[in-house]
């Protein structure tokens, strides 16, 4: 006798690297949105001409975090990660965007 959650996991699992079109579109949107936020934060440092060590270090951390996030998204889309990591990718996107908002507030000096 199987439970509903076990059945749902089997239904959502991509077969042989195949992903649903909804997953593909949502991860394209997520990765593009996250990349835009991080790049806007990086460019904002140059626009506000704040080149302190803290701002540079903060931007480097955001770029490295974006790199690991894009790597996880690529692995998920290729079918190398299980479907349960989808929620973690959504959570990471929210965290990166919130960190970018905080970094932009710090860099702009408000």
UniProtKB/TrEMBL annotation:
Protein name: Transmembrane protein
Record carries keyword Transmembrane: yes
Pfam families: DUF2678 (PF10856)
Keyword annotations of the record: Membrane, Transmembrane, Transmembrane helix
Residue ranges crossing the lipid bilayer per the database entry: 25-48, 55-76, 88-107
Domain of life of the source: Eukaryota
Taxonomic lineage of the native organism: Eukaryota, Metazoa, Spiralia, Gnathifera, Rotifera
Origin species: Rotaria sordida
